[in-house]
Each structure stands twice: as structure tokens, then as C-alpha cells.
Write a structure and sequence with these properties.
Length: 606
């Protein structure tokens, strides 16, 4: 009945190959006269979702999470992961071959200082390391008396004999009806920003920036509609887009060439050399630009102006058309999600459902909208202990039945008018008092963010603790950020805006973020409640400065059966009842009668 088209549940990496592949890599490093090698999970665009040909960390170690960094030395090897993936790494990686290190406790730089010896030479692929990240590693190696050397070819690629070919999918135009601003206008604003920054040109390898600036989309990576390519955008002349010409139809090429020169990526090195020969001041984001590009510019004579890519800020603030599209996409998505939740409520108690069959059902309901382009990430469909892994990815090997307790479904959709991301934790059968207590504390934190009112200029770091306080009061916490930025038919994880301890960018009207506190008891259960919110001006009587708040975009019931009402304040109960009344009023007219009846009960006052 249900099927998944846009996501696979196959295991793509083999942990059992870790030791023999590591042995082969060490032999190659030895032949090159190297004492070690540094391997980040990255491509030359620093994408979160990588093309299959760039999944080198997964090929070598078996680890498939979205953040990983490997250090290979002659006698030991380490895989660095963040707090989201420490449990997952232990299940996917051969512990006899690779030591797993939580990067929150020990950084790769600190580890190198402790384990490198004087005189050692450690290789790296300069196309995979950002300039900023590489400089940190170079300082660490130097402190140990070792040195890092750039390699002309990645030694992993030489051993990966069945490595997939680079992607080459067609580029599509992103219609003005969805973009809300033509590319010529965006380029004018970008040139103005470069002039204000006294930069002669911007170099960007960020495919998101390329897609947004030129109003194009693609399918070179999974789940994010990106065309992989590069751009050089001068402050006072015509830009150049470097992209595989086979991806451009005649119609797309004609439109692009009204805006920019179009060249093959192979022409980029000579163009960077020309910028350097002219002594140009070139703006780069040192935290997102590969060292290979930055150092080529510098070696050729360019002056590197380090700073945020100005496209990121422009892209983060949605225009009125994008905001209207986000609202429409979320309402459409809400109808599909509520159909799924109603179906789940009927079928789960009968038994027979699994994590995969449930994820496939939700994707099917979304496809039936007729507007789904892709899922925005592989659904985190997690029952019981699997839900304690914040970024769990179900495979046919791990597929678990939905049994009494909590079931967590974190999923999203890509529509041309907007990108969605929503998590609901659902009770199957019953949940014990401890689980309800934790669920309610997560909900209290969620409501605290949803109702936050703050002055213009406040950053996500300043409100992140709002979501944590109810958990902190019980000696609990969670190891991920409270919220990330979201694009407009682009990445479901967009910067620079975020709600986290590291979120220093001021929040501005038009930014879209997630609100997703959680709690995870390893080996038992996990809880997360996530909606997307839009930053908007907020009128506050007597306010002495401009104030901001959030509009909630996501519309889906929060499971009332998991709540301990006594833990909620009158203000929190009022928010929940008002939210549910809005869900019922806006979604019920869009669904079938059975789902509408389910909504009536699911959205009843607490």
C-alpha cells in the first residue's frame, strides 16, 4: 500500500570492511612517505548531504552520520563525531580499528597534539578542509613538532576502486513565482554588499549560495535541490558561474547567460590565478571555503578578505513571496502529516507496523499532495530505544516494530514553495510517569521558545536556554542545538541563523528556524517536539525598542496523552489549547472526514 520513493533504507556502508580498508590505506600512506592522513566528511562545496562519490568517511569506517572526521596514524586511528552520533558510531564502526572520540570532549586538534611525534608528516586533501579548519589543525601539528602537507590526490580515492561517478543531474530554473525576486536584483544587492565591504569580488563554492543567487535548482545531492558549481561575482562586472555544461539545457543556459558568463569547473583555477594576478581583494568565508581555493588565490597574489559570505545573510531573510510559500507548504504538509498521524493512531495498536513501514506511509501521504519534490532529509523513524539516537537512520537491518511506548517521527518535505521539517513523539498504548514527565518538560521548553519575545539584535544563543530550563530543573539536558535555520526550497539546515549555544547571528524578521528541544535516555526512549517558526515583528505596549517574536508555521497535534497537565502553567496550557484550536480550524477542511474526526479529538482542550 505504501512505498518510499525518495529515501532508501538500505545500509550503504559496511563496518566489517573498516579494518582491511584501513590496512590498505596505511600501506598507501607508507608508500607516499607519510606518517598519517586527515579525512573530514566533506566535499569541495562543504555540503551537509554529500554526493555518493564524496562519502569517503563512510567507505573507510562504516560511519554514515552527517559529521565525521578521521585521523589515521601508523599505529592508531580515530573517528571524531559530535554528541548526536556517539551511540550510532559505536554500532557502525569496528572499535578494534577506529577509536571513537566525542568532538565535544576532545577536538581533532587536541588529539593531534597528544598523539603526533616530532618530525612526523601528515597528509591531507586541501579540497576537503576549510581554510579556517586547516589552520587550526596546522597549529596543533606544529605544537607537536609535526607538519601537515597538502596532497595532489586523495589516497582514499586510489583504494576506493568502485567509487561512484560525480553527479551530473539537470539544472532547473526556480520560478520567480516561488523565488519572489529575480536573479538580476539579487546580484545588484550582492554587488552593493561587496562594495560596502570594499571587496573586488566574492568567490563562493557554496552550492546553496549559487542556487539562491541565480534562481536555479538541481539534484546533485540527496534531499536538497542543489546544482553543484562555483561562482566568482565581481563588485563591478559580470559574474562567472562554473558548472558542468552537460547539466544545462539550452533554455537554462540562455537564462543563465543573460546574468553571467558560464564556464566549466576546469576553468576555475585559471580564473582564480587571474584574480590573484590583478591583486584583487577577494571575499571568502574562511569557515566554508576549501583551503585549495583560498590558498591558490593567495599564492597568485590575491588579498583574501575573510568574512561571512554575504549571500548567506541575504538568503536567510525570506521575502514576502517566500514567506507566503512557506505558509502554503506547511499547510499542505500539515494535511499529509495529520492523515498519517490519524492512520498511525488506528494501526499502531494492532501491531504489525515497523519503523520502515511507518516512514514509507508518511512519504506516501506527502506524495499524494501532488506537489512533493523530495523529502528534505531521510525520515528519523524511531521506536523505543532507537529514538534515543537523535539522528537515527532506520535500515532494513535495524528496522524495529512499533511497540507500546514512544514512537518518534522526524521528517520533512521539499516543495517548490517551501521546505518543511517537523517532529512528533507519539504514544502507542501507554507511557509511564517518567516518560510523561520528560515529554512535558520538553513541551514546556518548546512553548518557551514559541512564546519568546525579545529585542531586535538578540541572537539564538541568548534564547537557547529558554528551551532547556525545564529539563535543567530536573538535572537533564539534550546534546544538540534547539533550532537551525531552514531554506526556501533549499537546505533544511541553513545558516547563519540558529538557536543554539553557538548561534551568534542576530535574529531578523523573515528568518525561518526550527524549535526542537528533546530528551534522550540511552537504551530506553527519546523525545523531540519540533515545529518551524518565522521571526516576525512583535508589538509590545510600552516597548522602548523594536521587539520580535515567532509565528509558528508547523501545524500538527502534540500528543496530549503524553502530557502531565499538572506540570504546565496556566499560560502554557492556554498556548497549547490555542495552538490545537488553530490546527483543527486550518487543517480539518483539507482532510478526509475520518481524519477530521481524529483531529477533533486530538486537538481537544487539555
Amino acid at each position: 500500500m505504501f512505498e518510499a520513493v525518495f529515501q532508501s533504507f538500505e545500509e550503504t556502508a559496511d563496518p566489517g570492511q573498516g579494518a582491511p580498508r584501513l590496512k590498505r590505506l596505511r600501506a598507501r600512506l607508507d608508500a607516499l612517505g607519510l606518517d598519517g592522513f586527515l579525512l573530514p566528511r566533506a566535499d569541495e562545496h562543504q555540503n551537509e548531504y554529500l554526493p555518493a562519490c564524496a562519502e569517503r568517511v563512510a567507505w573507510l569506517t562504516g560511519f554514515t552520520g552527517s559529521y565525521g572526521f578521521v585521523v589515521v596514524l601508523k599505529q592508531r586511528a580515530a573517528l571524531f563525531v559530535d554528541g548526536r552520533y556517539t551511540v550510532q558510531a559505536r554500532t557502525q564502526v569496528d572499535a578494534a580499528a577506529f577509536e571513537t572520540v566525542n568532538v565535544g570532549e576532545t577536538t581533532p586538534g587536541d588529539w593531534l597534539k597528544a598523539h603526533l611525534s616530532p618530525g612526523w608528516t601528515i597528509g591531507y586533501d586541501p579540497a576537503l578542509h576549510t581554510l579556517e579548519g586547516l589552520e587550526r589543525l596546522e597549529r596543533a601539528a606544529s605544537a607537536a613538532g609535526a607538519r601537515l602537507v597538502a596532497l595532489d590526490a586523495n589516497p582514499v580515492d586510489a583504494e576506493w576502486t568502485d567509487r561512484p561517478a560525480p553527479p551530473s543531474t539537470p539544472v532547473q530554473l526556480h520560478d520567480i513565482a516561488f523565488a519572489g525576486e529575480d536573479a538580476a536584483s539579487k546580484l545588484d544587492r550582492l554587488r552593493e554588499a561587496l562594495t560596502d565591504a570594499r571587496a573586488d569580488a566574492l568567490f563562493t563554492a557554496d552550492a546553496h549560495a549559487l542556487a539562491w543567487t541565480f534562481n536555479i535548482r538541481g539534484a546533485d545531492v540527496a534531499h536538497t535541490p542543489l546544482p553543484l558549481g562555483f561562482a566568482v561575482i565581481p563588485a563591478n562586472s559580470r559574474p562567472t558561474v562554473y558548472i558542468n555544461g552537460s547539466k544545462l539545457s539550452n533554455a537554462v543556459r540562455v537564462v543563465l547567460e543573460t546574468l553571467a558568463d558560464v564556464a566549466e569547473p576546469s576553468a576555475l583555477p585559471a580564473s582564480l590565478d587571474a584574480l590573484g594576478a590583478a591583486g584583487a581583494t577577494v571575499r571568502i568565508d574562511a569557515g566554508a571555503t576549501a583551503a585549495s581555493f583560498a590558498r591558490r588565490l593567495e599564492a597568485a597574489g590575491a588579498i583574501l578578505q575573510r568574512g561571512a559570505d554575504p549571500v548567506a545573510k541575504l538568503k536567510a531573510v525570506k521575502n514576502e513571496v517566500e514567506i507566503a510559500g512557506a505558509r502554503a507548504a506547511h499547510l499542505r504538509d500539515a494535511a499529509a502529516l495529520c492523515r498519517f498521524l490519524a492512520w498511525l493512531d488506528t494501526e499502531a495498536p494492532k501491531g504489525g507496523l515497523t519503523e520502515i513501514s511507518s516512514a514509507a506511509a508518511l512519504e506516501t501521504f506527502r506524495r499524494e499532495t501532488g506537489r512533493l519534490k523530495d523529502v528534505s532529509f531521510p525520515s528519523i523513524s524511531a521506536a523505543g530505544p532507537n529514538a534515543a539516537l537523535p539522528h537515527y537512520r532506520v535500515t532494513r537491518a535495524s528496522d524495529a516494530p512499533l511497540t507500546p511506548g514512544f514512537y518518534l517521527i522526524d521528517s520533512g518535505a521539499q516543495y517548490e514553495d517551501g521546505t518543511t521539517d517537523v517532529t512528533r513523539t507519539v504514544v502507542i498504548g501507554d507511557a509511564g510517569d517518567e516518560m510523561k514527565d520528560r515529554f512535558t518538560r520538553v513541551l514546556k521548553g518548546h512553548i518557551a521558545i514559541s512564546t519568546a519575545v525579545f529585542p531586535k539584535g538578540v541572537s539564538g544563543a541568548q534564547i537557547d536556554a529558554f528551551a532547556r530550563r525545564p529539563l535543567w530543573e530536573a538535572g537533564l539536558d539534550f546534546d544538540h542545538g534547539t533550532g537551525h535555520g531552514v531554506g526556501s526550497y533549499l537546505s533544511v539546515h541553513e545558516g547563519p541563523q540558529r538557536i543554539s549555544k553557538l548561534g551568534t547571528t542576530p535574529l531578523e524578521p523573515g528568518m525561518i528556524l526550527s524549535n526542537e528541544p528533546g530528551y534522550y535516555r540511552e537504551g530506553h526512549y527519546g523525545i523531540r517536539t519540533e515545529t518551524l517558526v518565522l521571526v516576525e515583528p512583535r508589538a509590545v505596549p510600552g516597548a522602548e525598542r523594536p521587539m520580535l517574536g515567532f509565528e509558528t508555521l508547523t501545524l500538527a497535534p502534540i500528543d496530549r496523552r503524553a502530557i502531565l497537565p499538572a506540570l504546565l502553567s496556566p499560560h502554557e496550557r492556554a498556548w497549547l489549547d490555542a495552538y490545537h484550536a488553530r490546527v483543527r480550524a486550518e487543517v480539518a477542511p483539507l482532510v478526509d472526514p475520518a481524519t477530521a474526526r481524529w483531529l477533533e479529538a486530538a486537538c481537544a482542550p487539555l
